[in-house]
Amino acid sequence: MVAWLRTRHAEPVTWRELAYLVLHGTLLVLLDAAATAIAFAPLLLLGAVSLPRSEGDTGSLDVAVAAAVAALAVLAVLAVALAALYLVPLAALAHGAVARQLLGPGAEAAVRTLTSSRARLVDAFEVERRRIERDLHDGAQQRLLELGITLVAIELELDEAPEAARPLVRKAAGQARSALAELRELVRGIHPRVLTDLGLAAAVADLADRSVVPVRVALDLPRRPPSTVESTAYFVVAEALANAARHADATTVTVSGRLDGDRLVVEVRDDGGGGADPGRGTGLAGLADRTDAVGGVLTLASPPGGPTVLRVELPW
């Protein structure tokens, strides 16, 4: 308990909370009371207005005075109501600004968040680097090694039995095609060529064509977004489609995207079983860090039983 109190006394946020408590009990209470009084002032004025009553036959003078008083009362009520429309929201904004300034996360919280996000990104990039290294070693490197052995055999056969080299040439051609396909698949996983050449809509359509789950694509983009935003949106869609096929047992997936003001909004919806959890190693945590790195926001709604909706908003 003593250690906790010592830590709390050493944190700047504790003193900001204390300052807000003092202000809330003094100045902010007066501000709230003034705003409340201004808000109800028109009703109070209406209740306070009393028109003069005529006694006997006093002629048209009393009528004129009553009309003038009524007009002035209406003008006063309108003036106070108009003032309340401006002053009450200003009071609320001032109260909110003070609360955000004193109770909101300070610079140290932002630094902690950025440091944690950077550490997760470094870990994700390290995992990706190891995956690429493993794929090169186990895939393309082995294909090229087999191709080299076949070419050596062809060279030996050409000296002794040229006809026997013909099947080896066909084998070498097949191995070269396999190695090329392996490299293309690897490059596509890093940054697909179609994304660079044709943009996000074509790249997502290519993902949909290669998906084992039927995918409907509805991207309405007036122009191409910046390359970093485009790449982030692509990998979010790719990971969502992979999760829908591997984990959700989905039968249909819909990918939609549009420009909303100055933000690119992309949604991936599947009809699977739901229950997606970023903490279970589905790649969603890495996508959140990647999205945060470009100033975007990633949200996930995946109740048990589905559907799962992955939404990403990225600054255009």
From TrEMBL:
The keyword S-adenosyl-L-methionine does not apply. Pfam families: HATPase_c (PF02518), HisKA_3 (PF07730), Sensor (PF13796). One of its GO terms (molecular function) is protein dimerization activity. InterPro entries: HATPase_C_sf, HATPase_dom, Put_sensor_dom, Sensor_HK_TwoCompSys, Sig_transdc_His_kin_sub3_dim/P. One of its GO terms (cellular component) is membrane. Residues 228-316 form the Histidine kinase/HSP90-like ATPase domain. The chain crosses the membrane at residues 21-45, 65-88. Its EC number is 2.7.13.3. It comes from the Bacteria. SUPFAM superfamilies: ATPase domain of HSP90 chaperone/DNA topoisomerase II/histidine kinase. It catalyses: ATP + protein L-histidine = ADP + protein N-phospho-L-histidine. The keyword Amino-acid biosynthesis does not apply. Keywords: ATP-binding, Kinase, Membrane, Nucleotide-binding, Phosphoprotein, Transferase, Transmembrane, Transmembrane helix, Two-component regulatory system. CDD domains: HATPase_UhpB-NarQ-NarX-like. This is histidine kinase. It comes from Phytohabitans houttuyneae.
